[in-house]
DNA sequence: TCTCTCACTTC
DNA sequence: TGAAGTGAGAG
């Protein structure tokens, strides 16, 4: 059965809502808005143009008006708004004039992202959750200053492969594991006006990545399996659950809505930044990535060579001993076989997993790179201008001379990626991927639940020039860096026809109608509200409310607790799972999201615990896999980016309207814009991958590498020598390295 | 591969 | 000052 705004009450199910009524009294209107139609309310449908057309007695509270307008826009029967509309103070309503917006999004710290992306970005996921680094930050423009927007972010699988880091590169290691429950993170400041969003950098740094499927930092809402659009799980949380060794693509969404409850029937503008793609890992695989993180993440400052911490001391100790050894070794063996010595030493350390390995690499890195003594900014800027150049230089001296330190062959620049010894000792260097560098412009997909308006299609067309824009942006960072590929889709017309692979839009969506025939744009099972309950206070801001416990919120509620609550409410898990969307909203509220009668989340304590959500976890999660819309495994069309040089089957049936596909448009050829954009963009960029160098770790000085662990005892004997050597090394190391590199 | 603890950092 | 975010390293 389908649910529509015009006919919100599902025959035969309305009674099921009654249990909520007594508890939901304060939010009665909300339930009405959500679709509940009290039997005692006369049906009165608002004109399509909104409440402005109504002649309401006196003044109508703004919230109510907003809701009415929203309801009217979507065809909600006035009667469904419930009695609350009559109970609230009324005031004259002013028609809200909707200014057309033309959102543009610029990825902040793009250069940094590029640096990571070139090497194959890795994001550590832990049980307790780790933040992303670099943090996902964007700057928005083109928004209607007065309109309210909800900004969201989610992370989707970039493909259906599992990876392994082998021979210094990421390789496909099979089919992806079953997808984790999807979550969407709503920016804690949501909803906020366009003006507010545009006045600052929108950062999603609080989002955490985890591999803990039982993570409680979120809750799941189960939507009825027969629901028009939202079947399956939509969870909200500050943590996104990912599979280790799988590739992911963050997405950013702008939704013009003043209430989260309107998301289902609001227009989603989705932005993809290929350079933010990453592989989730439980432990870093590529040393270069590790080093980049250490160099750029303030919290990892303790691991920088410049530090004076214990680690640093330990590192230096090790380094010193290594240097001493190297020096002696040179004396003993002459200078000819350094390469082999280094190699052996390196292997030895690597195998022994001695801390010296990373240490050495780091230290040397500094020696050869700007990092030491140089501000991060400086180092960054250098890399920014030419990490390659920097690396290249190193390579000429170090890499070439240390051919194989780690498998590394005397990598030619062109092959540096593969040869780059940036990887962990265990398996090597950096992921060799045809790195699409940052050139790809972000892809923007705008899907509207409403009929696609002219304005909605506007951007796509506009984007036609995107490619050049992208280049421009690249060239002129800070200028109009955002030239996202904009592919706008009329959900109804396009989403269903051709799922956006990788975008999480189920093919089946199109055929289904949601609230008056408007399909939902969120990927089913992909709706997580930022801000676990515990995090809500801090994270969700106005969007989420604290629950009865005040500070306790719902964070403390686990599925079990919720299930109990549900049971108490007379709702079985099953029934809960089959609740219609609007009912689910109750559940949402019950989970700690205090929702205003008009759909917004109340900032006041709300104790009602209705429940059902509990069931959601189990029921919903299972539904994720079995429901056609949610069965990502079976239908999972995915975006494939070339960065990792993986096969890129491109779905050519994208239903998206392609108005402007930047660089990829050309490459896309027959592909529809979106697909082309997604698939092609990365590819189009794979350019200077060859230039990638093994900078830091590879920059190990040969001397340091040649030291063998077992020789450490000699350290003492050589201490004095060490010190003098070290002094010299700091200033001369570069030269020796070069000479050495060149000598062989 | 993953998990946990540790010492270090930022805020 | 303490909570929380880091990568290293051991298991």
UniProtKB/TrEMBL annotation:
Protein name: (raccoon dog) hypothetical protein
Assigned GO CC terms: chromatin; nucleus
T-box domain: residues covered: 107-305
InterPro entries given in the database record: p53-like_TF_DNA-bd_sf, T-box_DNA-bd, T-box_sf, TBX2/3_TAD, TBX2_3_RD, TF_T-box, TF_T-box_CS
Low complexity compositional bias, start-end: 689-711
GO MF terms held by the record: DNA-binding transcription factor activity, RNA polymerase II-specific; RNA polymerase II cis-regulatory region sequence-specific DNA binding
Pfam families according to UniProt: T-box (PF00907), TBX2-3_RD (PF20627), TBX2-3_TAD (PF12598)
Compositionally biased tracts (Polar residues): 353-365, 441-450
UniProt keyword annotations, A-Z: DNA-binding, Nucleus, Transcription, Transcription regulation
Source taxon at top rank: Eukaryota
Location in the cell: Nucleus
Compositional bias (Basic and acidic residues): 379-388, 423-440
Gene3D superfamilies per the UniProt record, alphabetical: Transcription factor, T-box
Gene Ontology BP terms: cell fate specification; negative regulation of transcription by RNA polymerase II; positive regulation of DNA-templated transcription
Region (Disordered): 353-475, 689-719
Organism of this sequence: Nyctereutes procyonoides
């Amino acid at each position: 059965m389908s649910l529509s705004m015009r006919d919100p009450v599902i025959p035969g199910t309305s009674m099921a809502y009654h249990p909520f009524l007594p508890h939901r009294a304060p939010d009665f209107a909300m339930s009405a808005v959500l679709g509940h139609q009290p039997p005692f309310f006369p049906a009165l449908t608002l004109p399509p143009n909104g409440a402005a057309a109504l002649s309401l007695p006196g003044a109508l509270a703004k919230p109510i008006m907003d809701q009415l307008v929203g309801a009217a826009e979507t065809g909600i029967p006035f009667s469904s708004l419930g009695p609350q509309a009559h109970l609230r103070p009324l005031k004259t309503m002013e028609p809200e004039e909707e200014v057309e917006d033309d959102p543009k999004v610029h990825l902040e710290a793009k250069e940094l992202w590029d640096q990571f992306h070139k090497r194959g970005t890795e994001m550590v996921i832990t049980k307790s959750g780790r933040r992303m680094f670099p943090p996902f930050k964007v700057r928005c423009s083109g928004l209607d200053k007065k309109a309210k927007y909800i900004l969201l972010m989610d992370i989707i699988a970039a493909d259906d492969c599992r990876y392994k880091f082998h021979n210094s590169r990421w390789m496909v290691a099979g089919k992806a594991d079953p997808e984790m429950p999807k979550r969407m993170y709503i920016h804690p400041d949501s909803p906020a006006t366009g003006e507010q969003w545009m006045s600052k950098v929108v950062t999603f740094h609080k989002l955490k990545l985890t591999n803990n499927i039982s993570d409680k930092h979120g809750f799941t809402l189960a939507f009825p399996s027969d629901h028009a659009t939202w079947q399956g799980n939509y969870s909200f949380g500050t943590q996104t659950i990912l599979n280790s060794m799988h590739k992911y693509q963050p997405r950013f969404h702008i939704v013009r809505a003043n209430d989260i409850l309107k998301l289902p029937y609001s227009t989603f503008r989705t932005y993809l930044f290929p350079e933010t793609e990453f592989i989730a890992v439980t432990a870093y695989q590529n040393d270069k990535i590790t080093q980049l993180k250490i160099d750029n993440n303030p919290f990892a400052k303790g691991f920088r060579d410049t530090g004076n911490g214990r680690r640093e001391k330990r590192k230096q100790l090790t380094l010193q001993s290594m240097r001493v050894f190297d020096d002696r070794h040179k004396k003993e063996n002459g200078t000819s076989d350094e390469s082999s010595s280094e190699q052996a030493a390196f292997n030895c350390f690597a195998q022994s997993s001695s801390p010296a390995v990373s240490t050495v690499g780091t230290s040397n890195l500094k020696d050869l790179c700007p990092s030491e003594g140089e501000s991060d900014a400086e180092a960054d800027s250098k890399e920014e201008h030419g990490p390659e150049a920097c690396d290249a230089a190193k390579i000429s001296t170090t890499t070439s001379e240390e051919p194989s330190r780690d498998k590394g062959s005397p990598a030619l620049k062109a092959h540096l990626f593969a040869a780059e010894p940036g990887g962990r000792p265990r398996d090597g260097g950096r992921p060799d991927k045809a790195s699409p560098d940052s050139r790809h412009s972000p892809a923007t997909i705008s899907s509207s639940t409403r009929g696609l308006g002219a304005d909605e299609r506007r951007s796509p067309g506009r984007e036609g020039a995107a490619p050049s824009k992208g280049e421009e942006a690249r060239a002129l960072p800070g200028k109009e860096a955002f030239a996202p590929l904009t592919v706008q889709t009329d959900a109804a017309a396009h989403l269903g026809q051709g799922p956006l692979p990788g975008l999480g839009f189920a093919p089946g969506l199109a055929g289904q109608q949601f609230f008056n025939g408007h399909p939902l744009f969120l990927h089913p099972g992909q709706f997580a509200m930022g801000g676990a309950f515990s995090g809500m206070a801090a994270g969700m801001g106005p969007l989420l409310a604290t629950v009865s416990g005040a500070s306790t919120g719902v964070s403390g509620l686990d599925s079990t607790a919720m299930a109990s609550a549900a049971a108490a409410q007379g709702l079985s898990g099953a029934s809960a799972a089959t609740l219609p969307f609007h009912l689910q909203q109750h559940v949402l509220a019950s989970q700690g999201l205090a929702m205003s009668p008009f759909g917004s989340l109340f900032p006041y304590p709300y104790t009602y615990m209705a429940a059902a959500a509990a069931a959601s976890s189990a029921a919903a999660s299972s539904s994720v896999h079995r429901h056609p819309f949610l069965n990502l495994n079976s239908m999972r069309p995915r975006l494939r980016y070339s960065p990792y040089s993986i096969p890129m089957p491109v779905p050519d049936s994208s239903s998206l309207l392609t108005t402007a596909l930047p660089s990829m448009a050309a490459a896309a050829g027959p592909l529809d814009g979106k697909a082309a954009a997604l698939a092609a963009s990365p590819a189009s960029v794979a350019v200077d991958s060859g230039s990638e160098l093994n900078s830091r770790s590879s920059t190990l000085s040969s001397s340091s590498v040649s030291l063998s662990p077992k020789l450490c005892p000699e350290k003492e004997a050589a201490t004095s020598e060490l010190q003098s050597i070290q002094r010299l090394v700091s200033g001369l190391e570069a030269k020796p390295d070069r000479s050495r590199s060149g000598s062989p």
